[in-house]
Amino acid sequence: MNAMRILVRFKVTPDYEALREADWAAGEGDCSDRSGAAEADARAGSGVASGVETRYVPRILDCFDESALEMALRMRDATASDGVPVDLGAISVGGREVEPHLKTLQALGYERATRVHVDAGLDFAPTVTASIIARYVQETNKTDLLMLGCRNGPDDAGTLPFLVAEELGWPCVTQVTEVMVLSDDRVRVAHMVDDGLLRVTVRLPCVLGVGNAVVARLRVPTLTARLARREAHIEHVQTSDLGIDVVSGLAGESYVLTGLEVVRRDRSGTIIGGQTPREKAQTLFDSHLKSLMGKL
Amino acid sequence: MSLSRETIVEGLKHILGADSVVTDERILRESSIDRFRMFEDIHGVYTQPIPAAVAMARSTEQVAGVLRFANEHGINVVARTGRTATEGGLETAVPDSVVLDGSGMNQIVVIDAYNMQATCQCGVPLQVLEDRVREQGLTTGHSPQSKPLAHMGGLTATRSIGQLSTLYGGIEDMIVGLEAVFPDGTVTRIKNVPRRAVGPDIRHVIIGNEGTLCYITEVTVKLFPYLPENNIFLGYTVDTMKTGFEVLREVMVNGYRPSVARLYDPADGAYHFAHFVPEGLSVLIFVAEGPAGIAKATAEGIEAIVARHPECRKVESRYISTWFADLNWGPDKIAREREGILQTGNINRTTEVSGDWGCINDIYENALRRIIEEIPDITMAGGHSSHSYINGTNMYFNYFYNVVDCGPEEEVTKYHTPINRIICEETLRHGGAIVHHHGLGKARTPWVKDEYGSSYYILEGLKRAFDPKGIMNKGTIIPA
Question: A280 and A136, same structural domain?
């Protein structure tokens, strides 16, 4: 039986929750600044590509990509004893910040680990990223199923799965919450649609965009597993190897961060007085809940 | 003859009123433990005896009434406020215990800006007190990671310490006076004075007693000017922990008192600083604060000391200030932690000890080596020093493991206790102290006699004198 070859694309993003409110400001590196290689180089790793200064906060795995990575491991585990063999690969487009995550994935059993090196930040540049991923899949011809998160943080419009699928000419299912291997060329997929959860059988090759799945956290490798895979090879690919000119691609992007506005969701509140919980509960009922219940 | 659960509940209702006695089964189960058994809690498994009730006290008189009742009938009482304990101190080790909860005693009595002290009841969250005093340009100087959740009573009872301790000290340096209730209902007040020499400092009978001698109902703490505009953040990479300890030592010995003085090893540091520190390096962090001249002089003094160590390389200070702003733990991080543990089976534990400058690196190296060699399923093992003194520093071991091939109820015995054993053994062997600031709880009582040595006589004497019937938090500090 042939192995199902799964490639998971992931992105390492700034931890926006660690960003102080004062740091949410359109900075000097906003996205209108895409005029050439010098500028792109200057932006490399600066963390200002989206216009918000994110350099000073830690980098984390994008949460939807994290789901995709764990899902793929569970597909491998589920078929380990008597099912379809699953061969796992992981790919990311970025700089050195990607490497520790690739090592972690290798320790967890990802056989193939690839970093496509780019000098410039690719935030707000989904067509460039899509071209890189699609070209890599085509050039290597080792992928039956491409999985990736539906959306990478606040600077992502959620278009990447569609764009990659379009370039590859593969079907695409998004908002995926569960995947089950049926055979070496079929998977059963649950995905969110407007009216609920839809389960479909998909023939490979295909692209799956992972959404708000229950499986949200990536397992953690032991130190022993890390030690065993510490010499594992990480494949480094240049965009020029794939025939892609990132700088020209970025110049074609038209996103400009013009400003930021905090969406306030503050609501007024009332502190209910009273000596005992019973008294407070009665006040709550009398003054607030009773009238609401009457409308039901 | 011991009372039945029903009789205990009735007795408590008589003292506190029915609304203040909680007997909901879910709450009782959750009240049988603290964060030491959070893995069991996350999986809904409770192995400790379930208390008879949670008694919500709202006054010192009510605390005294409950303690008198418990003392008369031999009922074990577990004192608590903010419930952030990590070492099993809040476990109800005896069936039909009463959990005496002071979180409802949450009034700030007075903020005395002239005499620079604030008095509050035991259930005042530190964050609330800190926010209130900051409105007057003041600070308590106390900033443990649990600040958003912990209450003043518990912080005092466990001898807590905060991230700014190198300047402001631990809670024992901040407490001016306090009120406490002893098992027989005696209410004692230690008055608020700058210092006195009238015999032993009896505040220290109360501070750190972990509910084994008395119940703390009110505390008065010192206040300081709050001058964040003068803060200077300094960060450096350093090749080895040994050099890092040496820099910390030189800073302290030369008389500088930064509020923050920290040293992270590569493993622990990678969790915080991977976005700007190359793999394999340790990280030194300092914050100089206070009046502008002092902050400036402190920062310059530290810079001069670091400059004598060529392997130290400075990092941009904004990395440090940004990191420091996101350090505390509130309900959101607790919720995320629980979700992560449930999904991955990977749990983070810590054990904090201290030692003098001559032994701290040996404690660090030997304990860490043994943890990695002897404990299965470790996913990270590292540590940091975060509280320094003229004669030594602490080591906060920080480790993660995957809980595999065992039930939730075995997590403590399979992993956490063996790791605690290694750390305590190595700390004692080198002459350090087995607990730096979490309190002994029940988790580290197996080593308490070795920790105290001949002075254990004094500890036992205190217990005999103030809790002769042994109703106060059985199994905590003093082994059951």
Answer: no
